[in-house]
Amino acid sequence: MDAMNREPGGAVRRVETHPFNGQKPGTSGLRKSVREFSQPHYLENFIQAIFNTLGAEVRGTLVLGGDGRYGNRDAIQRILRLAAANGFQRVVVGRGGILSTPAASCLIRKLEADGGIILSASHNPGGADGDFGVKFNGANGGPASERVTAAIHRESGVLDHYLTCDSAALELDRDGCHDLCGMQVDVVDPVADYADLLETLFDFDALREMLGGGRFRMRFDAMHAVTGPYAREILERRLGAAQGTVMNGEPLEDFGGGHPDPNLAHARDLVDLMNGNDPPAFGAASDGDGDRSMVLGRGGYINPCDSLAVLAANAHLVRGYGDLAGVARSMPTSRAVDRVAEARKLPCYETPTGWKFFGNLLDDGRITLCGEESFGTGSSHVREKDGLWAVLFWLNIIAVRRQPARAILREHWRQFGRDYFTRHDYEGVDSVDAEALMASLRERLAGLPGQAYGEETVECADDFAYEDPVDGSVSQGQGIRLYFKSGARAVFRLSGTGTAGATLRLYCERYERDPTLLELDTQRTLAPVLGAAAAIAGIEAHTGRTAPDVIT
Ligand code: VG1
Ligand code: CO
After folding, report:
1. Above 60 in pLDDT, residue 488?
2. How many CA atoms does the CB half-sphere of 110 hold within 13 Å?
């Protein structure tokens, strides 16, 4: 287990340390404030815990990069020294320390690496006062399983030293091959392999014809986070979209002071543009590390639950997706994709929130497409959700069907019915209050069926547990589900990506088949369900809040 048993070569140094409390990865890696991460030994401890968990025999190749936020470059230099001292043979780093999450997954798979470390706190704010994060992905290119993250957490709580070596800072801004304390470090183009992969999945000729002629105008908002260089290369260079198609394309350490969360609240620049005079035909915005994206057509945005369903229903039109093995969605994601799966006789899986739960299904060939309500969709091409991929998938469908995005969506609703969906986030809630709310719901679950709240009556309620069909592992306590007699559903869970207090998420959905009721206002349509859910959970009584902070 201990890297100590290795023959320390050259300048390897053993540094005594003490465990930090709370190095517990959440939904997507370890996320903490920059302040917390800046404590001496904090980063090194966590990286050493990862290496110890891997086992001393796994010391081949690692992939390393991040979303470019404050602390990214310095962390890369430090991690390289730890990797060398722990006996890794090679680390492949994205130039400038940059790798989007899907591009890192792509590289791990292509190089058949042992895994990768991605430095990102995704949509959490950057800068010196913002957040930092570390994600560990395994040899399949996907987020480490719960079993592995639990082992890393345990290890972080007991380790008493880490191994590092002394070396000057490595040149990260030029491609090249280096020796660092006896380990090979390759600095590589962060974009090329990923762009090449996407080129095998989509019809780039058809896309070039659509985007290159200036007939179809689009905008991609990279929100000053990692996707700028990727979107410029793919949309502007390879596909010939007009210069300026990519907005906010320069990755900045503080994301320009913004909040790179691709939703109606945070992607304001793009939303204003799409609502302005003479809007482009299509818009998209990406999150901090490039694994999620929001898609907008003229006349409105496309809810991610619907987006997954539309991709599944139209996959046969797209070169790389002629034959779907199956589909999956995270539990709080609306059941829109289930309806497509049923019509097409495809297996459909419901997993807990977080991409790690799709890994086994993808590896086992059970699914081809999967997605989450939080603007993340992806496929078997990598083992991460992939923001730009989703944008190209949409563009490819638009190019083949020669219809605007919203028209495609409307037809989809007419064919399959519409699942009205919304998520209400109560942010910065006191953790004790939030836990009490969830605990109280859990205690009352058995008594809820039959109880009426306004127009809604509870039919059944449960605490979602998932048994992985591939390895049989069980994940408990993944969210409270309330099913109403009307067919509506409400879900409660606490976020696992925040760094301060708790965020309570309430997800509501209701299915509508009536063709005259497919274009209603979402919030108004869901008001009875939202009201019933809030009353059942006692949101105001527990948190003092009467309204959510963010609605998507
Ligand atoms: C959120 C989303 C979840 C997503 C996760 C990581 O998690 O709800 O769907 O997988 O972020 O995405 P939570 O626990 O806060 O609800 V990312 O783009 O931050 O890596
Ligand atoms: Co992300």
Report:
1. yes
2. 16
